[in-house]
Amino acid sequence: LGSDAGTNSAIYRARQIQQDAAAFGFDWPDINPVFDKLEEELAELKHAFNSGDREAISDEIGDLMFVCVNLARHARVNAEMSLRNTNQKFLRRFAYVQQQMANAGVEMDQQQLERMEQFWQESKNSVG
Hints:
The protein is mainly α. The chain has helices at 10-23, 32-51, 54-74, 79-103, 113-126. Helix 2 (32-51) packs antiparallel against helix 3 (54-74) and helix 4 (79-103) packs across helix 5 (113-126).
């Protein structure tokens, strides 16, 4: 199925594989079964975490990400751009948290997680 088409993005590659498979009729008829598959893969990931098997965890994370790309494809959303936008949103919000912690004169560490979470929630309204 398909080639890498000159890109290194695993997200792009997953979308191409899914589109190629869909061209052969191997695709969900609508988005609802994709949500079911997402829940199934998440349950499998939780089971892998509980087992402590790092190879299984890695495999299940890959499966979960593949389903997320499929979900984006069915929603006609560019998963690569969605993740890029989320990265930028996270960076804006994290910078806000850092600034607020510095303004409060509080060191950022695990003991301050609750306070950082409060600033994180604040950042959603302040920086988007």
